[in-house]
Amino acid sequence: MTGEGPIVRERTDLSFKTIDIDEGPERVRKWIEKNRSEEAKKVFHVNGKTYVIIMLGQKSTGGYHVEIEKIQLAKVVSPESKAGSGTVEVTHHVTEPEEGSINIQALTYPIAIAELSGVHDYGFQFSTPLKSEELKENNDQSVENDSDSSTQQASDGAEVELVRPEELTPEGNVKE
């Protein structure tokens, strides 16, 4: 080993602003309009900023909500690298209507958008904490890491999905 000292995992909170669809750039708005019926977790670089988008897809009632709670840059720093590789961790919470609750009967498209200054060219790891009943079910099953899959389960029971940032065309399509 050439360097001395421990390998350290550093976490830094990234400042972000939650925005409405109409506050985002036109490219992002066009992409959302084309894809809002689908569940998606996306990261786009547009006009020197990074947009983190979580869509729950089309729902047949009200009562659904998604909120981005925290965005952190996690870096593993070793003595050899002095810098380390990083991942941006996005923690979000999804609320669903309670069983038996009375909700508006209308199509809804729950979405959360976070705007970050600058271009963050790391992988973005989305973490959704599991509900207690889902945690109990999953404790009885062993989770295999599939190298082809971008969705895994963290040690705390959260579902984790890794997403790479993408660029959008002026028409709101993902660049190839």
UniProtKB/TrEMBL annotation:
The UniProt regions of compositional bias labelled Basic and acidic residues, in chain numbering, are 161-176
Could you tell me which residue ranges the PrcB C-terminal domain spans?
50-116
Region span, Disordered: 131-176
Q: Which InterPro entries match?
A: PrcB_C_dom
Looking up Pfam families in the UniProt record yields: PrcB_C
Biased region (Polar residues) positions are 140-155
Kindly provide the name given to this protein in its UniProt entry: PrcB C-terminal
User: From what organism does this protein derive?
Assistant: Lentibacillus halodurans
Q: In the record, what lineage is assigned to the organism producing the protein?
A: Bacteria, Bacillati, Bacillota, Bacilli, Bacillales
